[in-house]
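Section 5.1 Outputs to date
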Amino acid sequence: MIAYPHRLLLARPVRAVLAAGRGRANGVLSILLAIALAGCWPSASAITPPQPPAKDPNIVRVSEEQLHQLDIMPVSSHKFRVYKIAVGQIAFNEDASTLVATPFTGRVTRVIAKIGDVVKPGDPLFEVDSPEVVQAQTDLISALHAVERARMSLLVAQRQAERTTRLLADKAISMRESEQARNDQAIAESDLKTAEGTLHSARNRLRVFIGRDQAEVDRLERERIINPAVTVNSPLEGTVIARKVGPGQYVRADAGEALYGIANLSTMWLKANVPEVDIPHINVGQELEVKVTALPDRVFNAQVIAIGAASDASTRRVVVRSEIPNPGHVLKSEMFASFKIATSAGEDALAVPPEAVIWEGEQAVVWVEREPLVLQRRKIRVGMEQDGRLQVRDGLKSGELVVSRGAIFVQNELDQ
Protein backbone atom coordinates (compact mmCIF):
# COMPACT_ATOMS: atom_id res chain seq x y z
CA MET A 1 0.00 0.00 0.00
CA ILE A 2 1.34 3.40 -0.97
CA ALA A 3 1.91 5.72 1.97
CA TYR A 4 1.16 9.33 1.13
CA PRO A 5 3.07 11.95 3.11
CA HIS A 6 0.01 13.87 4.11
CA ARG A 7 -1.51 10.71 5.57
CA LEU A 8 1.55 10.18 7.81
CA LEU A 9 1.16 13.69 9.13
CA LEU A 10 -2.42 13.01 10.09
CA ALA A 11 -1.80 9.61 11.87
CA ARG A 12 -0.60 11.09 15.19
CA PRO A 13 -3.51 13.48 15.71
CA VAL A 14 -5.97 10.73 14.91
CA ARG A 15 -4.58 8.44 17.66
CA ALA A 16 -4.74 11.28 20.16
CA VAL A 17 -8.36 11.80 19.47
CA LEU A 18 -9.11 8.08 19.82
CA ALA A 19 -7.36 8.01 23.23
CA ALA A 20 -9.31 10.99 24.49
CA GLY A 21 -12.59 9.29 24.18
CA ARG A 22 -14.36 6.70 22.28
CA GLY A 23 -17.67 8.52 22.56
CA ARG A 24 -16.85 11.32 20.31
CA ALA A 25 -14.22 9.44 18.36
CA ASN A 26 -16.57 8.04 15.83
CA GLY A 27 -17.81 11.44 14.57
CA VAL A 28 -14.44 13.12 14.71
CA LEU A 29 -12.76 10.09 13.14
CA SER A 30 -15.16 10.16 10.27
CA ILE A 31 -14.39 13.80 9.56
CA LEU A 32 -10.62 13.28 9.76
CA LEU A 33 -10.73 10.23 7.55
CA ALA A 34 -12.71 12.15 4.94
CA ILE A 35 -10.13 14.95 5.03
CA ALA A 36 -7.28 12.45 4.73
CA LEU A 37 -8.85 10.56 1.90
CA ALA A 38 -9.60 13.79 0.06
CA GLY A 39 -5.95 14.80 0.28
CA CYS A 40 -4.92 11.62 -1.51
CA TRP A 41 -5.94 13.08 -4.95
CA PRO A 42 -4.34 15.93 -6.79
CA SER A 43 -6.35 19.18 -6.91
CA ALA A 44 -8.19 20.23 -10.07
CA SER A 45 -5.94 23.28 -10.37
CA ALA A 46 -2.88 21.05 -10.51
CA ILE A 47 -4.10 19.27 -13.70
CA THR A 48 -2.97 21.13 -16.98
CA PRO A 49 -5.37 20.55 -19.92
CA PRO A 50 -3.84 19.87 -23.40
CA GLN A 51 -3.28 23.08 -25.44
CA PRO A 52 -4.47 23.36 -29.09
CA PRO A 53 -1.74 23.80 -31.72
CA ALA A 54 -0.60 27.43 -32.26
CA LYS A 55 -2.34 29.28 -35.17
CA ASP A 56 -0.06 30.26 -38.08
CA PRO A 57 -0.42 34.06 -38.45
CA ASN A 58 0.28 33.80 -42.19
CA ILE A 59 -2.38 31.19 -43.02
CA VAL A 60 -6.08 31.75 -43.59
CA ARG A 61 -8.60 29.04 -44.38
CA VAL A 62 -11.62 30.06 -46.40
CA SER A 63 -14.90 28.32 -47.13
CA GLU A 64 -16.23 27.43 -50.55
CA GLU A 65 -18.68 30.32 -50.33
CA GLN A 66 -15.90 32.78 -49.46
CA LEU A 67 -13.73 31.43 -52.25
CA HIS A 68 -16.41 32.30 -54.81
CA GLN A 69 -16.09 35.95 -53.78
CA LEU A 70 -12.36 36.03 -54.60
CA ASP A 71 -10.54 36.28 -57.92
CA ILE A 72 -7.50 34.03 -58.05
CA MET A 73 -5.16 34.35 -61.00
CA PRO A 74 -1.73 32.94 -61.91
CA VAL A 75 1.42 35.02 -61.74
CA SER A 76 2.49 35.71 -65.34
CA SER A 77 5.18 37.56 -67.23
CA HIS A 78 4.70 41.10 -68.56
CA LYS A 79 6.94 43.40 -70.59
CA PHE A 80 7.95 46.52 -68.66
CA ARG A 81 9.49 49.44 -70.53
CA VAL A 82 11.58 52.36 -69.34
CA TYR A 83 9.92 55.73 -69.99
CA LYS A 84 11.20 59.28 -70.10
CA ILE A 85 8.99 62.21 -69.13
CA ALA A 86 9.16 65.83 -70.31
CA VAL A 87 6.89 68.88 -70.33
CA GLY A 88 5.88 71.31 -73.04
CA GLN A 89 3.02 73.24 -74.60
CA ILE A 90 0.33 72.56 -77.17
CA ALA A 91 0.66 74.64 -80.35
CA PHE A 92 -1.07 74.97 -83.71
CA ASN A 93 0.09 72.61 -86.44
CA GLU A 94 2.18 74.99 -88.52
CA ASP A 95 2.06 72.59 -91.47
CA ALA A 96 -1.73 73.09 -91.56
CA SER A 97 -1.84 76.78 -90.64
CA THR A 98 -1.26 80.00 -92.54
CA LEU A 99 -1.25 83.77 -92.18
CA VAL A 100 -3.23 85.80 -94.70
CA ALA A 101 -2.00 89.20 -95.84
CA THR A 102 -3.43 91.50 -98.50
CA PRO A 103 -1.72 91.21 -101.90
CA PHE A 104 -2.60 94.83 -102.77
CA THR A 105 -3.04 98.24 -101.21
CA GLY A 106 -6.44 99.73 -100.45
CA ARG A 107 -9.16 100.38 -97.91
CA VAL A 108 -11.12 97.58 -96.23
CA THR A 109 -14.81 97.94 -97.08
CA ARG A 110 -16.20 94.78 -95.46
CA VAL A 111 -15.03 92.17 -92.96
CA ILE A 112 -16.69 88.81 -93.58
CA ALA A 113 -15.01 86.07 -91.52
CA LYS A 114 -14.86 86.32 -87.72
CA ILE A 115 -12.67 84.60 -85.16
CA GLY A 116 -13.87 81.05 -84.61
CA ASP A 117 -15.50 80.71 -88.04
CA VAL A 118 -14.72 77.56 -90.00
CA VAL A 119 -13.75 78.36 -93.59
CA LYS A 120 -12.94 76.35 -96.68
CA PRO A 121 -10.56 77.13 -99.54
CA GLY A 122 -12.01 80.04 -101.53
CA ASP A 123 -14.33 81.31 -98.80
CA PRO A 124 -14.26 85.14 -98.50
CA LEU A 125 -12.44 86.74 -95.57
CA PHE A 126 -12.68 90.49 -96.28
CA GLU A 127 -13.10 92.98 -99.14
CA VAL A 128 -10.78 95.82 -100.15
CA ASP A 129 -11.37 98.76 -102.46
CA SER A 130 -8.00 98.96 -104.21
CA PRO A 131 -6.62 101.10 -107.05
CA GLU A 132 -4.48 98.13 -108.00
CA VAL A 133 -7.61 96.15 -108.74
CA VAL A 134 -8.89 98.95 -110.95
CA GLN A 135 -5.59 99.04 -112.83
CA ALA A 136 -5.57 95.28 -113.32
CA GLN A 137 -9.07 95.32 -114.72
CA THR A 138 -8.22 98.29 -116.93
CA ASP A 139 -5.21 96.39 -118.27
CA LEU A 140 -7.42 93.44 -119.11
CA ILE A 141 -9.91 95.60 -120.97
CA SER A 142 -7.08 97.31 -122.87
CA ALA A 143 -5.66 93.91 -123.79
CA LEU A 144 -9.06 92.89 -125.13
CA HIS A 145 -9.19 96.01 -127.30
CA ALA A 146 -5.67 95.36 -128.55
CA VAL A 147 -6.58 91.82 -129.56
CA GLU A 148 -9.62 93.05 -131.43
CA ARG A 149 -7.57 95.68 -133.27
CA ALA A 150 -4.92 93.13 -134.14
CA ARG A 151 -7.53 90.78 -135.54
CA MET A 152 -8.98 93.55 -137.69
CA SER A 153 -5.54 94.49 -138.94
CA LEU A 154 -4.78 90.88 -139.74
CA LEU A 155 -8.07 90.55 -141.64
CA VAL A 156 -7.25 93.65 -143.73
CA ALA A 157 -3.73 92.39 -144.41
CA GLN A 158 -5.03 88.98 -145.48
CA ARG A 159 -7.49 90.55 -147.93
CA GLN A 160 -4.79 92.84 -149.33
CA ALA A 161 -2.44 89.91 -149.80
CA GLU A 162 -5.13 87.94 -151.66
CA ARG A 163 -5.88 90.96 -153.89
CA THR A 164 -2.25 91.55 -154.79
CA THR A 165 -1.85 87.85 -155.57
CA ARG A 166 -4.68 88.03 -158.13
CA LEU A 167 -3.33 91.27 -159.65
CA LEU A 168 0.13 89.80 -159.90
CA ALA A 169 -1.31 86.85 -161.81
CA ASP A 170 -2.89 89.31 -164.27
CA LYS A 171 0.41 91.23 -164.38
CA ALA A 172 -1.43 94.33 -163.14
CA ILE A 173 1.09 95.04 -160.34
CA SER A 174 4.73 94.42 -159.80
CA MET A 175 6.28 91.61 -157.80
CA ARG A 176 7.53 94.15 -155.26
CA GLU A 177 3.98 95.25 -154.36
CA SER A 178 2.85 91.64 -153.91
CA GLU A 179 5.76 90.86 -151.57
CA GLN A 180 4.99 93.98 -149.54
CA ALA A 181 1.40 92.83 -149.06
CA ARG A 182 2.53 89.39 -147.83
CA ASN A 183 5.00 91.04 -145.45
CA ASP A 184 2.21 93.22 -144.00
CA GLN A 185 0.15 90.07 -143.42
CA ALA A 186 3.00 88.44 -141.50
CA ILE A 187 3.41 91.54 -139.33
CA ALA A 188 -0.34 91.55 -138.58
CA GLU A 189 -0.20 87.88 -137.54
CA SER A 190 2.73 88.63 -135.20
CA ASP A 191 0.89 91.61 -133.69
CA LEU A 192 -2.15 89.40 -133.01
CA LYS A 193 -0.04 86.80 -131.17
CA THR A 194 1.55 89.54 -129.07
CA ALA A 195 -1.86 91.01 -128.18
CA GLU A 196 -3.19 87.56 -127.27
CA GLY A 197 -0.17 86.99 -125.01
CA THR A 198 -0.79 90.32 -123.26
CA LEU A 199 -4.45 89.35 -122.76
CA HIS A 200 -3.46 85.98 -121.27
CA SER A 201 -1.09 87.76 -118.85
CA ALA A 202 -3.82 90.22 -117.81
CA ARG A 203 -6.21 87.36 -117.13
CA ASN A 204 -3.64 85.55 -114.99
CA ARG A 205 -2.91 88.71 -113.03
CA LEU A 206 -6.57 89.06 -112.14
CA ARG A 207 -6.87 85.40 -111.13
CA VAL A 208 -3.57 84.87 -109.31
CA PHE A 209 -2.56 88.24 -107.87
CA ILE A 210 -5.91 89.93 -107.47
CA GLY A 211 -7.86 86.82 -106.57
CA ARG A 212 -10.66 87.03 -109.11
CA ASP A 213 -12.22 83.71 -110.06
CA GLN A 214 -12.79 82.68 -113.65
CA ALA A 215 -16.45 83.68 -113.52
CA GLU A 216 -15.50 87.26 -112.55
CA VAL A 217 -12.90 87.41 -115.31
CA ASP A 218 -15.47 86.23 -117.85
CA ARG A 219 -17.95 88.84 -116.58
CA LEU A 220 -15.38 91.59 -116.97
CA GLU A 221 -14.53 90.53 -120.52
CA ARG A 222 -18.20 90.34 -121.40
CA GLU A 223 -19.51 93.52 -119.72
CA ARG A 224 -16.30 95.56 -119.58
CA ILE A 225 -17.48 97.16 -116.30
CA ILE A 226 -14.78 97.68 -113.65
CA ASN A 227 -15.48 96.57 -110.06
CA PRO A 228 -13.00 98.27 -107.68
CA ALA A 229 -13.76 95.94 -104.74
CA VAL A 230 -11.80 92.72 -104.44
CA THR A 231 -12.37 89.83 -102.03
CA VAL A 232 -9.50 88.18 -100.20
CA ASN A 233 -10.28 84.46 -99.88
CA SER A 234 -9.11 81.72 -97.54
CA PRO A 235 -6.25 79.63 -99.00
CA LEU A 236 -7.06 76.50 -96.97
CA GLU A 237 -9.63 74.77 -94.81
CA GLY A 238 -9.53 75.58 -91.14
CA THR A 239 -10.67 77.82 -88.31
CA VAL A 240 -10.08 81.56 -88.08
CA ILE A 241 -7.78 81.90 -85.06
CA ALA A 242 -6.73 85.56 -85.47
CA ARG A 243 -8.00 88.75 -87.14
CA LYS A 244 -6.17 92.08 -87.20
CA VAL A 245 -8.27 94.11 -89.60
CA GLY A 246 -11.47 96.10 -89.35
CA PRO A 247 -13.83 97.98 -91.70
CA GLY A 248 -12.37 101.23 -93.06
CA GLN A 249 -8.79 100.24 -92.24
CA TYR A 250 -6.18 101.12 -94.88
CA VAL A 251 -3.92 98.18 -95.68
CA ARG A 252 -0.74 98.00 -97.71
CA ALA A 253 0.62 95.14 -99.73
CA ASP A 254 4.22 95.99 -98.86
CA ALA A 255 3.61 96.10 -95.10
CA GLY A 256 3.87 92.32 -94.72
CA GLU A 257 1.47 92.33 -91.76
CA ALA A 258 -0.79 89.30 -91.38
CA LEU A 259 -4.44 90.29 -91.32
CA TYR A 260 -5.90 86.83 -90.68
CA GLY A 261 -4.68 83.59 -89.13
CA ILE A 262 -6.22 80.29 -90.19
CA ALA A 263 -5.38 76.88 -88.71
CA ASN A 264 -6.67 73.38 -89.27
CA LEU A 265 -7.46 72.14 -85.74
CA SER A 266 -7.81 68.45 -86.61
CA THR A 267 -4.19 67.99 -85.49
CA MET A 268 -2.02 69.95 -83.06
CA TRP A 269 1.65 70.08 -82.13
CA LEU A 270 3.31 69.39 -78.82
CA LYS A 271 6.51 71.37 -78.39
CA ALA A 272 8.27 69.66 -75.50
CA ASN A 273 11.53 70.67 -73.86
CA VAL A 274 13.52 67.46 -73.40
CA PRO A 275 16.76 67.31 -71.36
CA GLU A 276 19.67 66.89 -73.72
CA VAL A 277 20.81 63.73 -71.89
CA ASP A 278 17.55 62.03 -72.99
CA ILE A 279 17.75 63.07 -76.65
CA PRO A 280 19.81 59.99 -77.73
CA HIS A 281 16.86 57.81 -76.67
CA ILE A 282 14.31 59.71 -78.82
CA ASN A 283 13.88 59.22 -82.57
CA VAL A 284 11.55 60.59 -85.23
CA GLY A 285 8.53 58.34 -85.59
CA GLN A 286 8.42 57.15 -81.97
CA GLU A 287 5.01 56.91 -80.30
CA LEU A 288 4.38 58.75 -77.06
CA GLU A 289 1.57 59.41 -74.58
CA VAL A 290 0.52 62.98 -73.89
CA LYS A 291 -1.41 64.30 -70.90
CA VAL A 292 -2.80 67.81 -70.67
CA THR A 293 -3.25 69.54 -67.34
CA ALA A 294 -6.65 70.88 -68.40
CA LEU A 295 -7.84 67.34 -69.29
CA PRO A 296 -6.37 65.12 -66.56
CA ASP A 297 -8.56 62.11 -67.35
CA ARG A 298 -7.57 61.82 -71.02
CA VAL A 299 -4.47 60.41 -72.68
CA PHE A 300 -3.56 61.46 -76.24
CA ASN A 301 -1.36 59.41 -78.54
CA ALA A 302 1.20 61.36 -80.55
CA GLN A 303 4.18 60.77 -82.80
CA VAL A 304 7.53 62.52 -82.89
CA ILE A 305 7.92 64.40 -86.18
CA ALA A 306 11.00 66.56 -85.54
CA ILE A 307 13.86 66.93 -83.07
CA GLY A 308 15.53 70.30 -82.59
CA ALA A 309 18.99 70.83 -84.02
CA ALA A 310 20.28 72.85 -81.05
CA SER A 311 20.15 72.76 -77.26
CA ASP A 312 19.18 75.81 -75.24
CA ALA A 313 22.31 77.19 -73.62
CA SER A 314 20.58 78.14 -70.36
CA THR A 315 18.23 75.18 -69.80
CA ARG A 316 20.24 72.46 -71.61
CA ARG A 317 17.06 71.23 -73.25
CA VAL A 318 16.13 70.42 -76.85
CA VAL A 319 12.74 71.09 -78.43
CA VAL A 320 11.01 67.90 -79.60
CA ARG A 321 7.96 68.43 -81.82
CA SER A 322 5.16 65.86 -81.98
CA GLU A 323 1.88 65.73 -83.87
CA ILE A 324 -1.32 64.94 -81.93
CA PRO A 325 -4.76 64.10 -83.35
CA ASN A 326 -7.32 66.52 -81.91
CA PRO A 327 -10.79 64.95 -82.01
CA GLY A 328 -13.47 67.40 -81.00
CA HIS A 329 -10.90 70.23 -81.01
CA VAL A 330 -10.46 69.84 -77.25
CA LEU A 331 -6.75 70.69 -77.37
CA LYS A 332 -6.07 74.41 -77.36
CA SER A 333 -2.91 76.29 -78.22
CA GLU A 334 -0.62 77.14 -75.27
CA MET A 335 -2.09 74.42 -73.03
CA PHE A 336 0.46 72.98 -70.61
CA ALA A 337 1.17 69.31 -71.31
CA SER A 338 3.55 66.49 -70.47
CA PHE A 339 4.50 63.40 -72.41
CA LYS A 340 5.85 59.94 -71.68
CA ILE A 341 7.99 58.09 -74.22
CA ALA A 342 9.49 54.62 -74.10
CA THR A 343 13.29 54.63 -74.43
CA SER A 344 13.85 50.85 -74.56
CA ALA A 345 12.26 47.71 -75.94
CA GLY A 346 11.46 46.62 -72.38
CA GLU A 347 12.21 43.61 -70.19
CA ASP A 348 10.04 40.66 -69.21
CA ALA A 349 9.25 40.35 -65.50
CA LEU A 350 6.66 38.69 -63.28
CA ALA A 351 3.62 40.85 -62.65
CA VAL A 352 0.43 40.91 -60.57
CA PRO A 353 -2.58 43.25 -60.60
CA PRO A 354 -2.17 46.26 -58.28
CA GLU A 355 -5.28 45.24 -56.33
CA ALA A 356 -3.57 41.97 -55.35
CA VAL A 357 -0.95 43.85 -53.32
CA ILE A 358 -1.62 44.97 -49.75
CA TRP A 359 0.72 47.58 -48.33
CA GLU A 360 1.82 47.37 -44.73
CA GLY A 361 3.77 50.56 -44.47
CA GLU A 362 6.45 50.16 -47.13
CA GLN A 363 6.15 46.37 -47.23
CA ALA A 364 4.13 44.76 -50.05
CA VAL A 365 2.16 41.59 -49.26
CA VAL A 366 0.10 39.19 -51.41
CA TRP A 367 -2.03 36.15 -50.61
CA VAL A 368 -0.96 32.94 -52.37
CA GLU A 369 -3.13 29.86 -52.70
CA ARG A 370 -0.97 27.19 -51.02
CA GLU A 371 -3.60 24.47 -51.39
CA PRO A 372 -7.36 24.40 -51.99
CA LEU A 373 -9.14 26.69 -49.51
CA VAL A 374 -5.83 27.59 -47.84
CA LEU A 375 -4.25 31.00 -48.46
CA GLN A 376 -0.77 32.00 -47.34
CA ARG A 377 0.42 35.54 -46.71
CA ARG A 378 3.72 36.32 -48.46
CA LYS A 379 5.96 39.36 -48.59
CA ILE A 380 7.17 40.46 -52.02
CA ARG A 381 9.39 43.15 -53.52
CA VAL A 382 7.77 45.20 -56.27
CA GLY A 383 9.03 47.52 -59.00
CA MET A 384 7.28 49.78 -61.52
CA GLU A 385 3.60 49.83 -62.44
CA GLN A 386 2.58 49.84 -66.11
CA ASP A 387 -0.52 48.94 -68.13
CA GLY A 388 -2.42 47.82 -65.03
CA ARG A 389 0.36 45.48 -63.89
CA LEU A 390 2.73 45.75 -60.93
CA GLN A 391 6.24 44.39 -61.44
CA VAL A 392 7.34 41.70 -58.95
CA ARG A 393 11.09 41.59 -58.40
CA ASP A 394 11.18 38.95 -55.65
CA GLY A 395 8.86 36.71 -53.62
CA LEU A 396 6.79 34.94 -56.28
CA LYS A 397 7.29 32.32 -58.98
CA SER A 398 5.69 32.08 -62.37
CA GLY A 399 2.43 30.14 -62.30
CA GLU A 400 1.70 30.60 -58.59
CA LEU A 401 -1.89 31.56 -57.82
CA VAL A 402 -2.50 34.85 -56.04
CA VAL A 403 -5.68 36.55 -54.87
CA SER A 404 -6.39 39.68 -56.91
CA ARG A 405 -9.90 40.97 -56.23
CA GLY A 406 -10.74 40.41 -52.58
CA ALA A 407 -7.20 40.38 -51.16
CA ILE A 408 -8.12 43.09 -48.68
CA PHE A 409 -10.99 40.95 -47.35
CA VAL A 410 -8.61 38.06 -46.77
CA GLN A 411 -6.36 40.43 -44.85
CA ASN A 412 -9.30 41.55 -42.72
CA GLU A 413 -10.14 37.91 -41.99
CA LEU A 414 -6.58 37.40 -40.72
CA ASP A 415 -6.75 40.49 -38.53
CA GLN A 416 -9.87 39.15 -36.84
